[in-house]
Amino acid sequence: MKKITLVFPTKEYEKQILDYKNEFEINGDSMDGTAGLQKARSFNEWFSMLIDNSKEETVRTGFVPSSTYLAIRLCDKRVIGMIDIRHRLNDYLLQFGGNIGYSVRKSERRKAYAKEMLCLALEKCKDINIEKVLVTCDKENIASSKTIIHNGGVLENEVSEGERITQRYWISLY
């Protein structure tokens, strides 16, 4: 049963997006897959960056084109997660970040939303002709590794970045 849908962020969701950011900040969590929301000083600054980075012609230096979506719970229209699809990989993303980053707010975890979010994002990857998707996670993040494996991820290897060990999974879409 479909519990969520992925939608492009709009001004309509500004309050919910800022509440989402606040929940992560209060809990000291990492906001993966939010297209820089953690560093943005305002919704408008973040949204402007999101729009710029959505096209090859306007992508900001150091970034790759990407599509960012809100995971909206269908029954009450609450933002429960965010997911970012990077259309191509640069050197850093190839090693550590992957094609897809995502997060679920702490109050909504352990409800299988991440599995559904990743599944829906993989369909969007097909729409933009990405044939093989790299999804990474911290080795300590067991829930994320289970989410990736559930969606067809095959562990290629683990790489170190300082003290952190990143697991690199590939998902073939065709």
Characterization of the model:
The protein is of the alpha+beta class and 174 residues long. It has a single domain (4-172), classed as Aminopeptidase (3-Layer(aba) Sandwich). It is 32% helix and 28% strand. It has helices spanning 14-27, 43-52, 91-97, 113-127, 142-150; strands at 4-7, 66-73, 79-86, 100-104, 132-138, 154-161, 164-172. A hairpin with a 5-residue loop joins strand 2 and strand 3 (79-86). The model has no long low-confidence stretch (mean pLDDT 96).
In brief, what are we looking at here?
InterPro entries: Acyl_CoA_acyltransferase, GNAT_dom. With 174 residues, this protein is α+β, with helices and mostly antiparallel strands. The chain has a single domain (4-172), classed as Gcn5-related N-acetyltransferase (GNAT) (Aminopeptidase, 3-Layer(aba) Sandwich).
CATH class call? Alpha Beta
How many DSSP-defined strands? Answer: 7
Alpha-carbon Rg, integer = 15 Å
User: Going by CATH, what is the homologous superfamily?
Assistant: Gcn5-related N-acetyltransferase (GNAT)
Count of domains: 1
In what order do the strands lie side by side in the largest sheet? 1-2-3-4
Are there runs of 5+ residues with pLDDT below 50, and where? none
Pfam families: Acetyltransf_3 (PF13302)
Domain N-acetyltransferase: 26-174
Protein name: GNAT family N-acetyltransferase
Organism: Clostridium aestuarii
